[in-house]
Amino acid sequence: MAAALSVEVLLLGVGSSGGTPALGCTCPTCTSTDPRNVRTRASAVLRAGGKIFLIDTGPDLRQQALREKLLHVDAVLYTHPHADHINGIDDLRAFCWLQKAALPVYGNRLMLTHIRERFPYTILPPNAYWDKPVLTLHEVHEAALTIAGVTVQPISLTHGKWPILGWRVGDVAYLTDVSAIPDGSLALLQGLDVLMLDCLRDTPHPTHLSVAESLDWAARIGARRTVLIHMTHELEYHALSARLPAGVVPAYDGMRLFSEGIAR
Ligand SMILES: [Zn+2]
Ligand SMILES: [Zn+2]
Ligand SMILES: [Zn+2]
Fold it and tell me: How far is the CA of 7 from the centre of ligand 2 (A)?
């Protein structure tokens, strides 16, 4: 039996690639005054074993870090290299500067290839000014790994034609931008307390889960709590909440969850 690992989740952003409100839109979600209908691009922080893991670096990273007073990151866990998950990479320089250290980042081969090709200056040695991100790249495969003393499990997922990663720490899993979950990965999602799951909109999409598909996968995975993420403005917080089954809720920016990590 694995030792219990408690995990704190902070959802930095739960929006889709365009964010909510959508520029120029006057729909009920985009004109809502409820902060739960304001969604920055998808990203999360997991705290476990005294360490802070940042999932993805979207274009809103700086504002998210300021809002939540996020002053330290021990490692970045990347899901995939779409712009809404990587384009805040330059703002990692603030953490490198504060910590005067290179920041380890983890991803699959596709992810690391994109970093090397699109952001080659992030993998250079530091200079005296720490004016660029200084990253060390770590390629992960299917196996669990230990990062800063914490066991972290990559979860292989399909995002359209791309092989991407979800991440599990303790009894918490974060699965964004999913179109399908392979059987081998389903086996790694047993006994979850908190599942964060892609839920783009009602209409089916080739590279994301619709609400109906997301609820289907949530039922198959059977986490104690499922939290829907990466939503477009088509999903209004209260209207969506009202039609979800027990144990499933929409996420909102700044939402916090705590998993005690009861060993099974
Ligand atoms: Zn995305
Ligand atoms: Zn709208
Ligand atoms: Zn994507």
Answer: 34
Q: CB 197: neighbour CB atoms within 10 A? A: 26
Strand residue runs (E) in 14-64: 43-48, 51-55
- Ligand lying nearest the CA atom of residue 84: 1
Instruction: Tell me, in angstroms, the distance from the centre of ligand 2 to residue 236's CA.
Output: 9
> What is the greatest pairwise CA distance in the chain?
55
Measured between alpha carbons, how far is 128 from 122 in angstroms, rounded to an integer? Answer: 15
CA of 128 to the centre of ligand 1 (A): 35
Q: Radius of gyration (Cα) for the chain, nearest Å?
A: 18
User: Which residue type does 213 have?
Assistant: E
Residue 218 CA to ligand 2 center (angstroms) comes to 26
* pLDDT tens-place string over residues 45-97: 999 999 999 999 999 999 999 999 999 999 999 999 999 999 999 999 999 99
Structure tokens at 192: 């979850």
CB 182 within 8 A of CB 156: yes
Domains of the chain: 7-258 (3.60.15.10)
Contact 42, 206 (CB under 8 A): no
Residues with a beta carbon under 5 angstroms from ion ligand 3? 82, 177
Least Cα distance to 259 among 2, 5, 1 occurs for 5
